[in-house]
Predict the 3D structure of the following.
Amino acid sequence: VLHTTGGYLAFTSMTHEYVFDYRDGEIYWCTADVGWVTGHSYIVYGPLANGATTVMFEGVPNYPDPSRFWQVVDKHKVSIFYTAPTAIRALMREGEDYVRKTSRKSLRLLGTVGEPINPEAWLWYYDYVGDKRCPIVDTWWQTETGGILITPIPGATPLKPGSATRPFFGVEPVIVDGDGKRLAMEPGVVAEGNLCLARSWPGQMRTVFGDHKRFVETYFSTFKGLYFTGDGARRDADGFYWITGRVDDVINVAGHRLGTAEIESALVAHPKVAEAAVVGYPHDIKGQGIYAYVTLRADEEPNEALRAELVQWVRKEISAIAAPDLLQWAPSLPKTRSGKIMRRILRKIAEDQPSQLGDVSTLADPTVVEDLVGNRMNRAG
């Protein structure tokens, strides 16, 4: 139903044109699975409404080898490339040689979508894929929003690695505390809390088909008069927004609320780590413990000394309370074909509930789950 509304079509068209600085005749490629909303909005509706040539890709970024994306870029002379941070981190793990053996001279603009990108991955993307010449648009939006809401405008917005920067035209985000009080928005003031939207935008979802009451209760009842995104955010002194992850991805460790994205970013900052995912699990003493899945760079071998080193690394980067209680080596993480990490699977494994994983058929490689279950650290008995 969403796709038939004029507001949605106009919004995807406008955001595609302005966010990606689309120019007639360019080849545009969003690597998402066309069955997900990113594929709907930014493979099909937005690009085609603007008369763009859009690449549709079926496959994974590391087959037959980790230069696959860049080979496609060279073959089709792609100018604009839009992908997920998880895909970038997976390719980081394989090193820079797979990037360097391709030209990528056609690239003019890079983008990210799907989850917050940590600064280390942002810089790798900028330095090696874009050869330090392509701006990166780190976009924030949701299925329910229909299109991009917070993003840099290339050439106009200063870039900060890891920040989605500023709202798109007409979008009015606000940050509120747990009681719904709007936090100050003055220049120079830092605010952190729940990310909400104070006014409507053309592409927004109108209802849940057949259940409007559920729609209102889910998005508009938590904070009166506001659309609650379910995400946490920090607005820095320059007015730039940093998405800190889902509010329900906060772990309560002995009364301390910790964002999983911050712990993941600290782990990935270690030179031997390619990728990390953090979830909570039941802990007899602390209420919740911190369970970290860590994928090392391709030339690194896991060992107990490195495990202890990474725990200490997080203690130093954040604090002792943020140090992982359990750290499991993960040859790979369970991801959809578009590169999105399926965190519900990681939570169930960490909770020692492998029989309750649910459907894994949408994963790019379902065999990844078998390894994680077989080597789980929180096994009963």
Q: What stands out?
A: Residues 6-19 form the longest helix (14 residues). Residues 173-245 form a domain with the Luciferase; domain 3 fold (CATH 2.30.38.10). The chain has three domains: 5-167, 173-245, 254-375.
